[in-house]
Amino acid sequence: MPDVIFHTLQEYPTLPPIQETGRTLAANSLIKATFVFKMTGLPSLADDSGLFIDALDGRPGVLSSRYGGDDEHRIRRVLHELEEAKKRTAAFRAAFTYYDQAGAYRIFEGECRGSITRASRGRHGFGYDPIFIPRGYTKTFAELGPTIKNRISHRAKALREFKKFFTKKTPPSPLPLP
């Protein structure tokens, strides 16, 4: 996107941690985008994502990053909870919020359906990538590598929608905060 200067939170090391208190991915991404806008005065793009497993009634879902102490523990927990499950379908979901003026924001969502393996496979990626096989593939995200993952993932789908919106330069309309 020409004529756009991107900044990251690494450029603002004094910002306090952002508390994810929302009950949905969209709510958490809005919390983060609003916070960054208020702290920096700059338009912001923030995301939240999670793994939603059908046999676990959507868990870990919005709590995906807090479903255990680290990636390895979270994966072990999910595999243990699915030990007896025949249905292993799941979806990675992402919500990105673009916030560019007080009360004006848009939310962009993406989903990648697939299934959960019985053991970790692959070395690329992070989080649940070693146990998630996207629909239409036989390898996990961690086996497919970043080139394919970045083309088909939940985040990629949401960011494509954001890019369409942003390149039209249509300002978001003020919306009431949830």
Textual characterization of the structure:
The protein has 178 residues and is of the alpha+beta class. It is built from 5 helices and 4 strands, in the order αβαβββααα. Helices cover 30% and strands 22% of the residues. A 4-stranded antiparallel beta sheet has the order 1-2-3-4. The longest helix has 16 residues. It is globular.
What about the largest sheet? 4 strands, antiparallel
Contiguous low-pLDDT stretches (5 residues minimum) are none
The value of Rg in angstroms is 17 Å
Mean pLDDT, rounded to whole units? Answer: 92
Q: What's the level 1 CATH class? A: Alpha Beta
Query: Helical residue percent?
Result: 25-40%
CATH architecture: Alpha-Beta Complex
Strand order of the largest sheet: 1-2-3-4
N/C terminus separation: 30 Å
Structural class by helix and strand composition: alpha+beta
Annotation, overall tally of beta strands = 4
In brief:
The protein has 178 residues and is α+β, with helices and mostly antiparallel strands.
